[in-house]
Amino acid sequence: MQRRTEQLQQWERVIKKLISRANNASDTNKTEFRNRITKVLVNKARSEYKLRQLQKAGNGKWNEIKAGLEKNWVELRKAFLTASAKPNKDISNSKK
User: Fold this and answer.
1) Domain interval for residue 46
2) Is 59 within the bounds of a domain?
3) How many structural domains compose the chain?
4) Cβ atoms within 10 A of the Cβ of 77, count?
5) CB 40 within 8 A of CB 80
């Protein structure tokens, strides 16, 4: 759990950089970057919630909550990769 907590703190710094990048993007790309960052923030909040649940859980709930945390973690990593990519036609078209 300590490793996950440290990773979340590291990702918080990355989010700040992404927000700065979005603010400096062209008008065309700004909305796309902001949408991606929103997905990152939602997934991060879910992961933080699951992590807090895991810290409070007794042995009976441990595996159930851990599985949910791992699922959220995968989604969060994907959201970060997407948010970090430069907007282009391929990414925009893949949403349709």
Assistant:
1) 14-19+34-84
2) yes
3) 1
4) 15
5) yes
How many whole angstroms from its chain centre is CA 67? 17
Sorted by sequence, the CB contacts under 8 Å of residue 30 that are 6+ apart come out as: 22, 23
75 located within any domain = yes
56, two tokens: 């409070």
Cα separation, 9 vs 64, in Å, equals 24
Q: Tell me, yes or no, if the pTM score tops 0.85.
A: no
How far the first Cα of the chain sits from its last, in Å, is: 37
Where would I find the H helices in the chain?
Answer: 2-23, 27-56, 59-84, 89-94
Residue in this structure with the two tokens 């959201």, named with its chain if needed: 79
pLDDT (tens place) for every residue of the chain, 96 residues total: 678 888 888 888 888 888 888 888 888 888 888 888 898 898 888 888 888 887 787 666 777 777 778 888 888 888 888 888 876 644 444 443
Tokens 């710094």 belong to which residue?
13
